[in-house]
Amino acid sequence: MSNLETAPQARVCGGREDVAAEPVHELLTGRQVPLGGSTVVRRLLPNLGRRMVGAWCFVDHYGPDDIASEPGMQVAPHPHIGLQTVSWLHDGEVQHRDSLGSLATVRPRELGLMTAGRAIAHSEQSPSPHSPLLHGAQLWVALPDADRHTEPHFEHHPVLPEVTAPGLHATVIMGELDGARSPGRTYSPLVGADLTLAAGASARLPLQPDFEYAVLVMSGDAEVDGVPVQRGSMLYLGCGRRELPLRAAADSGLLLLGGEPFEEKLVMWWNFVARSGDEITEAREAWMTGSRFGEVHGYDGAPIPAPALPDLPLKPRGRVR
Hints:
The chain is mainly β. The chain has a single domain (19-259), classed as Jelly Rolls. It has one helix and 26 strands. The strands form five sheets. Strands 2, 14, 15, 16, 17, 19, 22 and 24 form an eight-stranded antiparallel sheet that branches. A seven-stranded antiparallel sheet has the order 3-4-5-12-7-10-13, with no helix packed on it. This is Pirin family protein.
């Protein structure tokens, strides 16, 4: 998924000095951003107060949207470097095409995982015909320095491991939860899990104390560690937890994100994750001149042009403002 802002800000992320080393409650609300077609997203990361949770560096939540008479998601070809994209749906379908020739339709509770590595381009759109509702999340994972120039590849995993408890059903999207491990390839210690809580349910989720965590409420009415979290908001929890209490007044869908705090500092601008402003400038030039990223075949439309670079130098700094 692309960042379609016409004047994207440079985000400086990473480093351990600003990680909450103990349990905290930090409520993050989403910023409304138009995505393409009829889709508007709530952007939770990067946020005014926090830029990363483990290696998770970008979180968009969208829907549920009625697209029965709309084109739905229409994100034209665009480039990425230095990250993985994670497509996750509760309703609808997203058709993925990329410059490697990959073509896949991702459906609810299936993992669409693209590792950009040194360079890739892709498009995402609701197929025709498509389901009447579209609801999901798009996430990015920053690649560590040792792996960020790896060869790009795409994975589609229709079946994922599950963890169940009374009133709780968890699908492991990335990493490991309670002994169940996702087949999606990871490059740093992290976890992503989709949680379904039945109305009236209470559960305790096992966590790793060395990880920092956040929970996004995608639907329903839920309490996370005793804190009410509205749909479309995310609660940052810090580190130092061995379990997480959850409660639901109504049937609820949550997204658990966590990971070992990302030690390296990086620069994120538009669709690029790098380590310096020069790398961002080079990647932008390569996209605009038609080199390095390849071509996405089969999408009916022109690629997205890169926005203008900001006037100020792009420098890596910390995780929070």
